Amino acid sequence: MKRADMLLIAVILIAALAFLVPRYFSGNEAKGGQGKELVANVTVDGKHYRTIKLTKEEQTIDIRTERGYNILKVHDYGVEMYEADCPDQVCLGFGFITLPKQTIVCLPHRVLVEIASGAGEDEIDGFVQ
Amino acid sequence: MGLSNSESSQALKRTVIIAIFSAVAVVLGIVEAQIPLSAMGLMPGAKLGFANIMILTCIYFLRGRDALMLVILKTLLTAFILGTFSSLLFSLFGSLLSFIVMFLLMKGGRMQLSLIGVSIAGSIAHNIGQLAAASMVMGTTSIMYYLPILLVTGIVTGIAVGYAVRYLVSSLSQISLFEEFLR
Fold first, then answer.
1. A Pfam family for this UniProt protein (chain B) (predicted)?
2. A95: left (phi > 0), else alpha (psi -120 to 50), else beta?
3. Residue B43 DSSP one-character state
4. Which strand (E) or helix (H) includes residue A80?
5. How far is it, in rounded angstroms, from Cα B139 to Cα B146?
6. Helix, strand or coil for residue A98?
7. Domain parsing of chain B, residue ranges
8. What is the pLDDT of residue A127?
9. Consecutive 10-residue averages of pLDDT for chain B (183 residues)
10. Shortest alpha-carbon distance between residue A40 and chain B (Å)
């Protein structure tokens, strides 16, 4: 490896840290859990589809579009993609998400699930153009 | 055609090399798809980028348009075989951006960056291209949430691919098929 390689790696690492550090600090007050009233915004093809309240009780949500179906499962104040009939199954790999701004994306079906804090302090709108 | 004997023999060699490289790249893509990265706690959709080994080696030996042909062939064939046709657009966007960045760095920045640096830059460009295509289609920038993680994984996979290319280039240079393409 040459010196320029090291420089490139350093620049990329600093850029990654610059994105990560503010998220780490703001993460404390934006934690999920009981009484935090988080919601999951589901958009299909850029259009708003549903807003789901994240509860402790289990609930399943079917998202059926002309491209295929996705099944979301809400439990323990979080949400996960439970089933999808897309070929790559990447969306299932996102796992169980509980924190604001975390997302589940299903590119083949153009489905986007994003966690946001519920009504009131809605700073998320600054990020979604 | 007005090609002389040695010219047509070189054109044939280029075609053969592109064919072999794209076949290997597709196989590497299939092998890579069997490795469950997301089960290992990594970002879903993150890939090792083995196919990039062949693309970078092709840029090293052949002309830019040959490598571009390889990129398009590899992306189309992998999408057809793995059956993720709907995500073809995204991988094409990522591959093309990655190719452009690596090509420019190889032509202009060979003095500064080694093959490993070029490979890292290509890997990062691939990630950014895919995320950009995805956020355009989905009409939201919230997918960029995953950019920092992808940057870090891009460095790691880029280094691995870069070392593989270095060994491959030094081995292939000893084969007579590649002799006349050496610089």
1. Hpre_diP_synt_I
2. left
3. P
4. strand A78-84
5. 16
6. coil
7. 5-180
8. 47
9. 75 90 90 69 69 91 90 88 72 89 83 86 90 79 78 90 92 83 69
10. 13
Together in a domain, A65 and A108: yes
| Stretch 36-95 of chain B: residues touching chain A, C-beta under 8 Å | 38-39, 44-45, 82-87, 90
**The pTM is what?**
0.81
- Which helix (H) or strand (E) covers residue A59, if one does? strand A59-65
How far apart (Å, rounded) are the C-alpha atoms in residues A102 and A93? Answer: 13
A105 near B143, Cβ under 8 Å? yes
DSSP H or E run through B122: helix B115-138
What residues contact A124, with CB distance under 8 A and at least 6 apart? A100, A101, A114, A116, A117
Contact between chains at A4 and B90 (C-beta distance less than 8 A): no
pLDDT at A98: 80
pLDDT at B57: 92
Residues of B in contact with A115 (CB under 8 A): none
Express each pLDDT in A5-32 by its tens digit. 888 899 989 988 888 777 766 655 555 5
Does the domain at B5-180 match CATH 1.10.1760.20? Answer given as: yes
Are A57 and A75 in the same domain? Answer: yes
Give chain A's end-to-end CA distance (angstroms, integer).
41
Q: Are residues A42 and A25 in the same domain?
A: no
